[in-house]
Design brief:
Elements lengths: L1 H25 L6 E7 L18 H8 L2 E7 L5 H10 L14 E3 L6 H7 L3 E6 L5 E3 L31 H9 L7 E6 L11 H4 L21 H31 L5 E7 L14 H4 E2 L1 E4 L9 E8 L3 H8 L19 H4 L11 E6 L14 E6 L2 E6 L21 H8 L8 H8 L5 E5 L17 H17 L10 H5 L10 H6 L22 H7 L2
Parallel strand pairs: 1-6, 1-7, 2-10, 3-5, 4-6
Antiparallel strand pairs: 2-8, 2-9, 7-9, 11-12, 12-13, 13-14
Helix pairs in contact: 5-7
């Protein structure tokens, strides 16, 4: 009888364990915590989980291995402030008025999902770089914090003089100490690997070597020089610093017993701060790393998700998981769509409808006459990218005489700029990054991810171009994009919020001594008036 009783007890105990496991696996917690970790300027290829060997990201890789790796995640706008504005609002940048530009006065009418989470029972905060650079105020003119509360007080001694001294992990710990029993949303906004870099730090402090980077992994629109390799290794060293801070945060969540019910999201705001990437609208500009881990909420872990995800889809997904009632969401209508269904799916391609994203830009940095931008709209659909350049007579990276201000200064930019004097094919390095472009572009990004072979005039691609053009324009009209209704000039009239750079072009020409340009080098300013090949490219 005793043996029989023990057997029954064992069966009951086993059943409890099975039920407990089933509950954890198939019934995620009602309101998960969310840790949103966003790097500053990283292209998707430069992460270990995507196959990169010269950038070590064990914590990102862990998240991908124990969760999901997204193979087609895109920002709608490849510049810091407009990209982050899209994330927090769930709207494309052409739907955000002033916030569609870089360095904007952020309209008070656009609520952020973080503010909504705070109003619905979440503890909310951030460390490092939030939604920036913008000037944000409430309707009454008081300062506004769109991520609710900053945690930047705790400092550290960084490994280089260009890496932020904000102790991201320590500030996250400070935040965790005040969450209590409330679910939380925390934004870890690393300022790395945004420029500048401490030159040669990847080698002297990161233990890297020039030979670490194969020629095939230096993009074909840059010269394969030692200075470019060194620049890439410095970039890699800063990515690794971000990843180490992320690892500390994961350990904190484990120690607190919160890791299982925390959705970890890791991504970047736009592509790497190098020529022809950041600030443009090409594959390497907008295609970003994205991995998510959530032990209690993701079934069939380790999947590589093929669905196309836009940053505007993040806000509705977070609000969906947080179960925010429609009546308690004060945000303007969200354009993005929740992809919460991916968490419970068992496939790599979950929805056939998620096979495209829209991207674009208006004004990023100043430097053109009258502070105008370089307006673009584009569509990525499966293996193709179609681009519409609305003002092709303008310089896409900024005017030569004012330093091509939409390209951050650094060794790779300098190497490309110097080829403007080349009489051989090296001139293409300047042309690809700084020269003017056609009014339309079409690329097969599977065969040509560098986007160097424009297929727009290829007769075999005529139907494809028409289909993508028509779809792009139809969707933009649905989204009330002023640019396609002939009202795009309003984006050029919005005030640039960084007063130090307002009316940059005219002030530079008259030698205004108060003018500053800390994000580019003095040597970036070029007079191409006597360089015939460059003049020809400028008259395109």
């Amino acid at each position: 009888m005793k043996k029989y009783t023990l057997s029954i007890a064992g069966i009951v105990f086993t059943g409890i364990i099975i039920l407990s496991f089933t509950y954890r696996k198939d019934r995620p917690a009602q309101r998960p915590n969310i840790l949103f970790a966003i790097m500053d300027d990283v292209t998707y290829q430069h992460i270990g989980a995507y196959g990169c060997k010269w950038v070590k990201t064990p914590n990102f890789d862990r998240i991908a291995r124990d969760g999901l790796l997204f193979k087609n995640a895109y920002t709608p706008n490849a510049k810091c402030a407009p990209s982050r504005s899209c994330i927090i609002t769930g709207r494309n940048s052409w739907q955000l008025e002033e916030a569609g530009n870089h360095w904007s006065y952020f309209p008070s009418k656009f609520a952020s999902f973080a503010e909504v989470l705070a109003q619905n029972g979440y503890e909310v905060g951030y460390t490092g770089k939030g939604v920036a650079p913008v000037v944000a105020k409430n309707a009454d003119g008081t300062p506004r914090e769109m991520l609710v509360k900053a945690f930047n007080q705790l400092k550290t001694i960084p490994p280089t003089n260009q890496i932020s001294n904000i102790d991201y992990a320590a500030n996250f710990s400070s935040f965790l100490n005040r969450t209590g029993d409330k679910p939380f949303f925390f934004w870890y906004g690393g300022l790395e690997p945004h420029r500048g870099y401490e030159f040669n730090s990847g080698i002297t402090k990161g233990g890297k070597n020039l030979t670490d980077i194969p020629n095939a992994e230096i993009y074909p629109f840059w010269p394969k020089t030692d200075s470019v390799r060194t620049d890439l290794l410095d970039y890699a060293f800063e990515i690794e610093y971000f990843d180490k801070q992320l690892g500390k945060m994961l350990k904190m969540l484990e120690d607190k017993g919160e890791l299982h019910n925390t959705l970890i999201v890791v991504t970047s705001d736009n592509g790497m701060p190098f020529p022809r990437v950041k600030g443009q609208a090409y594959e390497y500009s907008n295609h970003l790393p994205l991995a998510m881990m959530w032990a209690d909420g993701i079934a069939h872990k380790g999947r590589k998700v093929e669905d196309f995800i836009s940053f505007i889809d993040l806000a509705p997904t977070f609000l969906d998981l947080a179960k925010v009632p429609a009546g308690k969401n004060k945000m303007k209508p969200i354009t993005g769509k929740s992809f919460a269904d991916i968490f419970s799916a068992d496939k790599e391609k979950v929805s056939a409808k998620r096979n495209f994203v829209l991207v674009g830009k208006e004004r990023h940095d100043v430097g053109r006459p009258n502070d105008v931008g370089y307006p673009i709209r584009a569509i990525f659909q499966e293996n193709y990218l179609f681009i519409k350049n609305f003002e092709p007579e303008r310089w896409p990276a900024g005017n030569p005489e004012t330093g091509y201000l939409n390209v951050d200064g650094g060794p790779t930019k300098t190497a490309c700029l110097n080829t403007v004097y080349a009489t051989n094919n090296d001139f293409n390095y300047w042309l690809w990054s700084f020269g003017k472009r056609n009014n339309e572009e079409l690329y097969d990004i599977k065969k040509d991810p560098a986007c160097l072979n424009n297929l727009i005039t290829n007769p075999l691609q005529k139907n494809r171009s028409a289909q993508l053009r028509n779809k792009l324009l139809a969707l933009l009209k649905e989204q009330s994009d002023p640019r396609v209704f002939g009202k795009g000039t309003q984006f050029d009239l919005y005030k640039y919020a960084d007063k130090r750079g307002v009316n940059f072009y005219d002030r530079y020409l008259v030698k205004d001594t108060t003018l500053r340009w800390g994000w580019v080098l003095d040597s970036d300013f070029q007079d191409i008036s006597k360089i015939e090949r460059a003049k020809k490219a400028g008259n395109k």
